[in-house]
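Title: Comparing notes on inverse folding

I've been comparing how different people in this forum approach sequence design from structure. To keep things fair, I'm posting one structure and asking everyone to reply with a full sequence. Here's the target:
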């Protein structure tokens, strides 16, 4: 692997690989497939999805979609949401620990993971229910009948907020016959054991029950924790005494060390010819050794590969406008893309004084997600109208403790607990009149409650003076926040069969959403009160960031579909998308970003302790107070696409092609403001995305040989966006210079014209799957899949940090009995062990002198794709 600067823009290119397997594997598998060929090709299996309120074949619906059924998921070894990238061009899925839990991007559009208050621009739909947080990827992609990835805004039929697209998955239901299966899978590289069991019983004509359970336990992982024993010396701001705490080697030697348990129970049946019901209850638990462990410290450009911290120069030169910093080397910290990272546990002596930091015992890092879901679906068929009602209750708890300093130095820690509850109801009527006009009418209601609590330790602070909560002795600051939300939405669509071949559908969704939020910092160490004001009961107005927000919008769309023949469909669509604004529960109340009072900025006054908001003292509830670092505006887009879908050569070839263009306004983003030491959620003024996509599937004349491929072209750029400078950015790099009276928090960089992260210009895959009988009642199958992504930006706020283009190779071999009861499979993913990053950012307290000629860059940490996986799987079906 190497890092280099490319061109005059100072771009950083990332390349990486490990010893590769021979590319002849693909040729070998294809050559083996050439045997006796049938004169006529087989047909491609038809996949039926519910993408527009009614069930239709993917060949017919006028939507850009990639649909994957259960058999195809098994053939390609798709076991998680991140595996979906293998068959879906222009899709990116990356897990995150803190914030909203994951990045899901389609066509370069996705939401930052660092803010818990941002709902994903790509919605997850689980059994017909909208899930607000991307953390729903923890719900488990097992015993699933199909996954559908719908691209572009999907405002009409999928709850809300789907400005980028939708990932929808449907779990299996009880069948008409008894079914039981067991599966055991062992992944050798990470030592991950997965057990799965399914039992489906048709009790009678009116009721059936299906129980599915899966558990996994990863003994290792793929990033080694190389942090050794260390010390942590605190300074008591009350007595000015120092204390040194021993910090032994971290308990978790590997990341992620994942463990998961998923249980789903479904009861379903037909109570009459007209009425059916489906009730699903599920439990999900997911844990790993550290929420921040996936970010590997890989580039330290300031000191030529040596990690550092930014420390004030001593003594300070006279006459400077801001504090002058210099890089202090940390030679013992690993700064290389090598599958290793230093992640310290909290020193046990410190953790013992804080329940939140000690929630996993002995100061251990960790993350645990736990959720319950109950979904009831009722369908009633009138003579000409189908009525469906879906009711859902969702409860999720998240807890984590983690090291956030970016290297094996005991410095910055945080711990969090947050809870989320959702109650949602959706009802819709779909007509089936024997006429040229039909319609869909629906309504949606959602009520949500979120509570957030976080403690942060940094700067070696301690306080043994008078304190309300003994848990805060070592806390720099803590945060509490809550948001109560309510959504009402109504939608309708009219379908007009203009002719037998030409159909016009037009509809709209009206949405009204309210959010009532507050945020306080209950405790702040006196040493940093001037930066982070604590809650003051004598002045709650200015020490509580609060917002009552209401968002309304009417979102139209229209599609014209032309059935050129029975097997060729052409469509053109105009669409809009809307995602409500919100409140950043995980932000920070800082004196560097004071509130606005009656539209005027409230200046900070360091002479006033505690509140420290200067001339704002004395404001009343009658004043209009706005904390702009906490609130953000709605995200909107509009545009269109044209597409063609064709089933050719006796349905042996299915080809789809789309061209699209969408323009975004106020795209929601979240950046780390290094000068303010805080993540800030804001809106990008403008962005656009356009491109094309081709997908082809071919059931070849060779019996059992199936080929597929996809190709995507994408341009996704900011068109208008001024944002905080990154740490150490200089005037020559587009930040500053500082004007008289300005601080680093006043500076902005112009990001217009920059490519969005996670938006490679070219992407695609090429796959072959083959099965043939080999005698003795056995069937041998193999699948080979190559995926490619071209160069892509890794950070929205740090232009020029680039992952070079790369390809990965997956393959598996399956041996099963002809009746399908037994199957033994060897599954390989990323067989060439390619190293590549999905995203990157700078480490806090490493960039220095922002906006001045003396600026120096921070060190960089990035989250990588998973390296090689080698799995052996045994399945038995009764």
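Reply #1:
Here's my take.
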């Amino acid at each position: 692997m190497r890092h280099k600067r490319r061109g005059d823009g100072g771009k950083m290119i990332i390349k990486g690989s490990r010893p590769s397997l021979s590319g002849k594997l693909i040729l070998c598998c294809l050559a083996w497939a050439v045997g006796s060929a049938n004169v006529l090709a087989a047909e491609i299996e038809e996949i039926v999805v519910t993408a527009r309120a009614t069930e239709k074949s993917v060949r017919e619906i006028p939507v850009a979609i990639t649909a994957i059924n259960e058999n195809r998921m098994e053939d390609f070894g798709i076991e998680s949401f991140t595996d979906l990238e293998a068959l879906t061009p222009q899709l990116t899925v990356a897990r995150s620990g803190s914030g909203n839990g994951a990045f899901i991007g389609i066509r370069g559009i996705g939401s930052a993971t660092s803010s818990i208050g941002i709902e994903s621009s790509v919605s997850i739909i689980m059994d017909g229910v909208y899930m607000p947080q991307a953390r729903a990827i923890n719900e488990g992609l097992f015993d699933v009948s199909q996954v559908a990835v719908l691209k572009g805004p999907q405002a009409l039929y999928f709850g809300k907020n789907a400005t980028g697209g939708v990932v929808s998955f449907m779990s299996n239901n009880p069948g008409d016959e008894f079914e039981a299966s067991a599966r055991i899978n062992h992944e050798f590289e990470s030592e991950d054991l997965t057990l799965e069991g399914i039992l489906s019983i048709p009790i009678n004509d009116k009721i059936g029950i299906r129980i599915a359970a899966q558990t996994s336990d990863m003994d290792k992982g793929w990033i080694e924790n190389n942090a050794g024993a260390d010390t942590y010396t605190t300074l008591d701001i009350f007595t000015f005494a120092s204390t040194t705490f021993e910090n032994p080697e971290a308990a978790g030697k590997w990341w992620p060390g994942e463990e998961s348990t998923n249980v789903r129970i479904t009861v379903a049946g037909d109570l009459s010819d007209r009425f059916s019901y489906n009730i699903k209850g599920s439990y999900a638990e997911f844990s790993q050794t550290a929420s921040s462990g996936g970010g590997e410290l890989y580039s330290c450009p300031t000191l030529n590969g040596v990690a550092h911290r930014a420390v004030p120069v001593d003594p300070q030169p006279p006459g400077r406008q801001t504090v002058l910093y210099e890089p202090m080397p940390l030679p013992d910290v690993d700064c290389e893309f090598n599958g290793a990272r230093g992640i310290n546990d909290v020193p046990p002596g410190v953790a013992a004084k804080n329940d939140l930091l000690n929630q996993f015992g002995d100061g251990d890092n960790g993350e645990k997600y736990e959720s319950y879901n109950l979904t009831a679906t009722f369908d009633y068929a009138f003579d000409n109208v189908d009525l469906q009602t879906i009711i859902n209750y969702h409860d999720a708890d998240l807890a984590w403790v983690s090291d956030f300093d970016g290297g094996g130095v005991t410095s910055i820690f945080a711990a969090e607990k947050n809870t989320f509850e959702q109650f949602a109801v959706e009802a819709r009527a779909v007509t089936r009149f024997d006429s040229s006009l039909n319609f869909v009418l629906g309504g949606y209601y959602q009520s949500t409650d979120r509570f957030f609590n976080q403690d942060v330790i940094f700067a070696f602070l301690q306080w043994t003076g008078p304190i309300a909560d003994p848990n805060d002795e070592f806390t720099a600051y803590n945060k509490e926040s809550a948001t109560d939300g309510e959504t009402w939405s109504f939608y309708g669509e009219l379908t007009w069969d203009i002719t037998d071949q030409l159909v016009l559908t037009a509809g709209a969704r009206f949405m009204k959403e309210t959010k009532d939020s507050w945020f306080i910092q209950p405790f702040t160490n006196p040493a940093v009160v001037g930066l982070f004001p604590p809650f003051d009961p004598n002045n709650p107005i200015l020490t509580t960031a609060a917002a009552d927000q209401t968002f309304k919008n009417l979102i139209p769309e229209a599609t014209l579909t032309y059935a050129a023949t029975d097997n060729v469909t052409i469509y053109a669509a105009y669409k809009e998308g809307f995602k409500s604004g919100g409140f950043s529960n995980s932000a920070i109340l800082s004196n560097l970003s004071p509130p606005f009072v009656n539209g005027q900025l409230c200046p900070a006054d360091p002479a006033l302790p505690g509140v420290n908001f200067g001339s704002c003292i004395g404001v009343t509830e009658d004043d209009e107070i706005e904390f702009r670092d906490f609130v953000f505006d709605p995200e909107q887009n509009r545009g269109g696409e044209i597409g063609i879908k064709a089933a050719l050569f006796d349905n042996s070839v299915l080809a789809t092609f789309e061209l699209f263009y969408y323009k975004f306004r106020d795209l929601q983003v979240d950046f780390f403001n290094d000068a303010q030491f805080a993540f800030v959620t804001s809106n990008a003024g403008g962005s656009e995305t356009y491109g094309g996509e081709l997908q082809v599937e071919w059931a070849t004349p060779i019996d059992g040989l199936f080929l597929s491929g996809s190709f995507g072209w994408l341009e996704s750029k900011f068109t208008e966006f001024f944002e905080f400078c990154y740490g150490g950015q200089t005037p020559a790099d587009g930040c500053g210079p500082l004007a008289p009276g300005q601080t680093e928090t006043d500076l902005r960089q112009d990001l217009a014209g920059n490519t969005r992260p996670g938006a490679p210009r070219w992407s695609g895959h090429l796959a072959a799957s083959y099965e043939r009988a080999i005698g003795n009642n056995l069937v041998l199958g193999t699948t080979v899949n190559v995926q490619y992504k071209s160069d892509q930006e890794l950070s929205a706020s740090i232009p020029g940090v680039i992952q070079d283009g790369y390809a990965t190779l997956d393959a598996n071999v399956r041996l099963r009995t002809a009746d399908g009861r037994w199957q033994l499979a060897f599954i390989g993913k990323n067989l060439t062990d390619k190293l590549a990053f999905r995203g990157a950012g700078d480490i806090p307290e490493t960039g220095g002198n922002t906006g001045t000629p003396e600026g120096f860059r921070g060190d960089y940490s990035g989250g990588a794709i998973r390296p090689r996986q080698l799995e052996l799987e045994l399945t038995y079906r009764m």
